[in-house]
Design brief:
Length: 300
């Protein structure tokens, strides 16, 4: 596997943090790999071990047409000469987007299924299992995925009062909470669900760490729902990029950074507290036609 040495912790110097006397850092998991980035790398680590033990002939997995997970699996499998299948939600588009073109370049077999058929993922999984493939669930969300994410906590160079990350399935924050509990740290864990009705994230974390008390799920920063944006969020992407050099994507990471900025302005943190944001990667989310055009408009 690759090394996570490159995932450094660095200070995020924004005026709102300085004004409130809080110290915000980012863990640059986005630097782990350009395409197997952030939490997708961590989720893959132990799934890869399970795959090797399974004796299966390849890996099959699930995702939407813009999925960072699909991209990560395609890239990883090409680097490791593993046959792979991406079961993609929705009919095959006439022109493939950047994620699917890259996946194809890396030799992933794309299998498009209707949204209706996609709801029966278990049946599809059984089918591909029958063909000798090891199944990794959508987003890499399983126990092995959470275990990989929990290792992020072992790498931390200092202690933090708060740890934040963006959540889709909640696997990453569940792993982090597990790592925090395992190491008996005092850090409070915060999830920023990027979709509406993110309350379910709490259940996902509870499955990993029963009776957890140091968890807050902030359900009001989804910006309208999954892959939806607001003018404030788009402006924030620009602000963060020009003030710090850190690029974020509008689907996931920008929502986490924006939440921390807003919470700081609202006086949510105590003076002197230390806060860590996990940059979970996924920059290709910024590079779709739709998002580039939205961001561009917000800058003008
Ligand atoms: C997939 C993804 C997430 C969501 O992680 P979960 O473990 O599903 O909560 C967050 N950030 C980025 C950049 C992602 O690609």
């Amino acid at each position: 596997m690759l090394s996570t040495n490159v995932s450094i912790e660095q200070k995020v110097n924004l005026l709102e943090f300085e004004e409130k006397g809080v110290h915000v850092y980012v863990k640059r998991d986005d630097k782990i790999h350009p395409f197997i980035s952030g939490n997708k790398w961590r989720k893959l680590k132990y799934n890869y071990e399970l795959f090797l033990d399974s004796g299966c002939k390849g890996i099959a997995t699930f995702g939407g047409a813009f999925s960072n997970h699909i991209l990560a699996i395609a890239s990883f499998c090409a680097e490791n000469r593993i046959k792979c299948v991406g079961i993609i939600r929705g009919e095959e588009p006439k022109v493939l987007n950047h994620v699917l073109v890259l996946a194809k370049l890396w030799g992933m077999e794309l299998c498009f299924v209707s949204r209706q058929a996609y709801t029966e993922k278990n049946l599809l999984a059984e089918l591909w299992q029958g063909h000798g493939y090891f199944i990794i669930p959508e987003g890499g969300d399983n126990d092995a995925g959470a275990k990989g994410c929990s290792e992020l906590v072992d790498e931390l160079l200092r202690s933090y009062d708060h740890i934040f990350c963006a959540s889709g399935t909640g696997c990453t924050i569940a792993g982090i909470a597990n790592g925090v509990a395992r190491k008996k740290l005092k850090s409070h864990c915060h999830s920023i669900p990027v979709l509406k009705q993110g309350e379910f994230i709490e259940e996902r974390v509870l499955a990993e760490v029963p009776n957890i008390i140091n968890l807050t799920v902030h359900t009001s920063f989804h910006g309208g729902g999954y892959a939806k944006t607001t003018p404030e969020l788009l402006r924030f992407i620009h602000y963060l990029a020009k003030e710090t050099g850190i690029l974020t994507d509008p689907i996931y990471t920008a929502k986490a950074f924006y939440a921390v900025s807003e919470l700081a302005k609202d006086g949510y943190f105590k003076k002197g507290e230390t806060i860590l944001i996990i940059h979970t990667g996924g920059l290709t989310g910024l590079l779709s036609e739709k998002m580039l055009s939205a961001v561009q408009k917000s800058i003008l």
